[in-house]
């Protein structure tokens, strides 16, 4: 692939808009767009300046051009890939890379707002096909290009470039591979040596199989994911209005589509994220009940049936977490804060099993008591994990990013506290070597740090008659006044900074969860603890059965074991359809249909189905048509034709002259207000 053109020394006199054909490959689309961003954005601008001032004029020109002329399905993928590329380049003094990165993200979401919502769904969920046919035996798609039972939000690195030798792809190495590949998509304008076309491989093979939303999650496009149109699509996936499978068969193909209750297999509803979350909470509630039952029973002599059930639940939970980690990779697995609780629950459970086994083998009551003491620690993490459903609520979900960032600042600040504490502890221990031991002095200083200053004043003369009182006064002043006050100020400042973007953080985590739960290549998803059944009975058959035979076996087993769950889902949806009187009527638990003010819709106002608020969302255009003035019979009239009137040919015509005058007057007022704001900004800039 040839290297991209260099950035011009200044802005070009005329914008050279990229030429993108409908059938251009992904690599060509990325290169065409990168040339435009490198050549046209030569002055640093902040995100808000690009969005609200004249610095974003080139963005508006590009968006209008793409809406009217570009129908390439990989457009959003290319824009978000370039956003990642520019954001990963080495920072320059002028901040041009950050400017171009923000411009790519703004163009992506503004483009989606200008097209029909059904086209927006196609653009966002378009998966990048392989760039070229490969004969590698280790293809992750299995035979005949069909998806196997291994799901992966970020699918393993299928194509290796000349810059990266073939190796086994680990989940944790995915981001490294993407960074290495993206270094060849476009050139850094600060580089002087071009890349030889013969030495450069295709850098886009790492993105094969990823759709636009997945690339947005990889590229940390939090502002893009928080946009209304994008969240509407993600909420549609969460509710099951958008599905990726239509039938439960060995030859089923993964394809984003709108759910059709009459045509779709009912077992496909098992892949709906909202039901996965609901049964996950039910599983944890049962897990917690077994946990309490075992602790209350507390039999030190032998393993009881309740304890065996607890072991089964722990094994199913551990296997489900391991599968999720392998499927999603460490990058996305670490994004969800609740996965940290899951890992700790597994580690505590493993420690309990080991100590419990040793205590039974050695018939040692002390070790057995230690085992149950270790098990009692599970409540610290299992109870919050059951309540993790609250994190899907906007209010509670907004607090999690704030607490996460405040915890980071607290840990950093405690490094300074630890250094001062060790210094004073050493001094006081040496001065009071004949009076207090090291451990006792350590606890005294800890109590003083947490507010018991009177305790330090009581023993300061016992430490040393001369140096004790002044040193203790300095320690109390630094800890209770200086350090504590500084810590509160730092946490308050951190909270105020994070809360401004907490909604974006929350929607990002929510979006990643939805994508992990729905867009993988795994057709069959077994709910725990039923996931132990294929692990025990089907996995050993991989030695003897082909991939297609295994898939058929898993489908049969899924239908046998999950029939009651599917029946419960069907009954739930049927009940809601009957109560609300619409084919798609169950309310959304996601943020796409709600707001952060806590307002509730009136009971008489029914929510409309997904993608039903735009006139052009009822049809799939496939391409964008530029209407000519000759097609409009009368610019001062409009027509409304209902479905029943369509066949009769009756048209209702109304005069909108007054409306047109009001719109013109409003436009003039907006122009005057814009000029006033621009003048004020110019005055502030001069000052």
Automatic annotation (TrEMBL):
**Listed transmembrane segments:** 278-295, 301-319, 331-354, 413-431, 472-491
The record ties this protein, via InterPro entries, to: TRP_calcium_channel, YVC1_C
Chain ranges of the Calcium channel YVC1-like C-terminal transmembrane domain: 284-575
Q: Where is the signal peptide?
A: none
Residue ranges annotated as compositionally biased, kind Acidic residues, are 189-202
Entry keyword set:
Membrane, Transmembrane, Transmembrane helix
Annotated region (Disordered), positions in chain: 185-206
**Protein known as:** Calcium channel YVC1-like C-terminal transmembrane domain-containing protein
Lineage here is: Eukaryota, Fungi, Dikarya, Ascomycota, Pezizomycotina
């Amino acid at each position: 692939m040839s290297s991209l053109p260099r950035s011009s020394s200044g802005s070009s006199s005329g914008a050279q808009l990229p030429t993108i054909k409908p059938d251009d490959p992904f690599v060509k689309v990325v290169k065409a767009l990168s040339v435009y961003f490198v050549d046209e954005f030569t002055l640093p601008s902040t995100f808000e300046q690009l969005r609200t001032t004249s610095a974003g004029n080139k963005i508006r020109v590009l968006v209008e051009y793409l809406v009217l002329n570009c129908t390439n399905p990989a457009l959003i993928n290319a824009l978000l890939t370039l956003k990642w590329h520019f954001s990963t380049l080495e920072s320059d003094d002028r901040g041009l890379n950050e400017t171009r990165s923000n411009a790519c993200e703004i163009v992506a979401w503004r483009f989606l707002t200008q097209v029909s919502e059904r086209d927006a769904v196609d653009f966002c969920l378009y998966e990048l096909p392989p760039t070229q046919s490969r004969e590698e035996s280790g293809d992750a798609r299995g035979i005949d290009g069909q998806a196997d039972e291994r799901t992966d939000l970020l699918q393993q690195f299928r194509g290796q470039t000349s810059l990266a030798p073939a190796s086994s792809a680990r989940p944790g190495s995915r981001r490294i591979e993407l960074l290495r590949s993206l270094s060849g998509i476009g050139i850094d304008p600060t580089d002087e040596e071009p890349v030889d076309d013969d030495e450069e491989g295709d850098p886009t093979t790492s993105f094969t199989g990823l759709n636009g939303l997945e690339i947005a999650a990889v590229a940390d496009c939090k502002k893009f994911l928080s946009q209304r149109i994008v969240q509407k699509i993600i909420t549609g996936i969460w509710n099951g209005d958008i599905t990726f499978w239509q039938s439960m068969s060995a030859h089923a193909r993964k394809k984003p589509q709108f759910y059709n209750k009459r045509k779709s297999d009912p077992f496909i509803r098992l892949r709906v994220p909202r039901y996965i979350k609901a049964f996950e909470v039910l599983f944890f509630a049962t897990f917690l009940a077994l946990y309490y039952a075992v602790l209350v029973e507390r039999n030190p002599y032998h393993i009881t049936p309740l304890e065996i059930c607890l072991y089964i639940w722990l094994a199913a939970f551990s296997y489900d977490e391991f599968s999720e980690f392998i499927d999603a990779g460490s990058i996305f697995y670490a994004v969800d804060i609740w996965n940290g609780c899951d890992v700790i629950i597994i580690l505590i459970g493993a420690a309990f099993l080991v100590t419990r086994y040793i205590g039974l083998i050695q018939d040692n009551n002390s070790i057995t008591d230690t085992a149950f003491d270790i098990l009692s620690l599970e409540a610290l993490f299992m109870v919050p994990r059951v309540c993790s459903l609250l994190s899907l609520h906007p209010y509670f979900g907004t607090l999690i990013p704030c607490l996460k960032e405040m915890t980071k600042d607290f840990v950093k600040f405690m490094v300074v506290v630890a250094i001062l504490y060790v210094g004073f502890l050493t001094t006081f221990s040496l001065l009071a070597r004949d009076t207090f031991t090291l451990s006792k002095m350590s606890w005294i200083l800890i109590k003083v740090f947490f507010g018991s200053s009177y305790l330090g004043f009581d023993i300061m003369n016992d430490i040393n008659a001369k140096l004790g009182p002044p040193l203790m006064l300095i320690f109390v002043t630094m800890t209770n006044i200086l350090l504590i006050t500084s810590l509160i100020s730092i946490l308050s400042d951190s909270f105020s900074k994070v809360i401004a973007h907490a909604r974006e953080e929350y929607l990002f985590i929510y979006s990643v969860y939805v994508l992990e739960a729905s867009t993988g290549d795994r057709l069959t998803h077994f709910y725990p603890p039923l996931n132990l059944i294929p692990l025990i009975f089907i996995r050993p058959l991989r030695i003897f059965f082909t991939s297609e035979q295994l898939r058929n076996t898993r489908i049969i087993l899924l239908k046998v074991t999950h029939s009651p769950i599917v029946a419960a889902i069907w009954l739930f949806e049927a009940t809601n359809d009957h109560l609300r009187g619409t084919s798609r009527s169950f309310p959304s638990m996601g943020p796409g249909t709600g707001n952060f003010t806590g307002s509730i819709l009136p009971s008489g106002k029914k929510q409309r189905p997904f993608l039903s608020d735009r006139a052009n969302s009822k049809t799939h255009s496939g391409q964008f048509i530029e209407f000519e003035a000759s097609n409009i019979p009368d610019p001062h009239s409009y027509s409304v034709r209902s479905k029943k009137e369509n066949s009769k040919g009756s048209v209702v015509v109304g005069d909108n002259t007054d409306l047109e005058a009001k719109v013109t007057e409003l436009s003039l007022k907006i122009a005057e207000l814009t000029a006033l704001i621009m003048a004020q900004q110019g005055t502030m800039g001069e000052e």
